[in-house]
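#onboarding

Welcome to the new folks! Below is a worked example of what a typical request in this channel looks like: someone posts a single protein sequence, and someone else replies with the predicted structure as tokens. Don't worry about understanding the tokens yet, we'll cover that in week two.

Example request:
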Amino acid sequence: MSSFVKDVNEIAKRINTPTTFYNAETLTVYWETSPEVIRRILPAPLTPGPRPLVHAFVADYPRTSFCEPYREAAVFILAAYNGQPGTYCLSMPISDDIAMGLGREIYGFPKKMADIRLRKEDQHVAGSVSRRGTEFFRVEAALNGTMNTTDAESLISAHYGAGLPVFNMKYSKSPDGRGFDMGPLLIRQTASMDISVRKAAQVEIHLNDSPHDPWAELEVVRMLGGIYTVSNTVLERGEVLAEVDPAQFLPYSNLRWDWWV
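Example response:
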């Protein structure tokens, strides 16, 4: 019989089991936005990266080590902490509640349940993300081996090298609605990928304004292109880098909830 109380040995076993995504199918798109946008939405102590780069993905996970198949999307901006490069996750829509809890409560990923679609037909891939009746992100990709700009591959290689970490903020809001009862912590988290398929793509994206998922704020100044991959991916354990000033972070603290929370 199952129980609300779990065996500590079973907990230890699960902690030591790698968080693995098998044959993960992912379409990632890259673009440049304006430096002013990056400065406005990036919380301290993070600082802007050397270029105002954004990347977003839509992924289908047909098999994992921890839950049933699901789909996920996310958007990130290039950032740094004490000179260490990384990306800051602004939003991570997801289609499964178990996976939402794992990434959100443990690593601080700003996950919210959403309707996510990814479809591949021959050399064409289409993806979309919708919540509360609004499709706020849609991408169409032609897997023709080239990207939208001739310098895209070199820019991606220079700024998104292997093992580039993700920065997240992990925190708990106070039950009285005034600030936090667990102050924000800056988290560093990495993943390793064993890629079996990689195809460059020319892409077109559509960003529609949404009050709860404002991806359209990341205006496209220059579209670089996309990359379609199939990979086995392992989510590595994270680490706490720093305590963050609660008063400074408060305006940035609604990534995991819709606006009225």
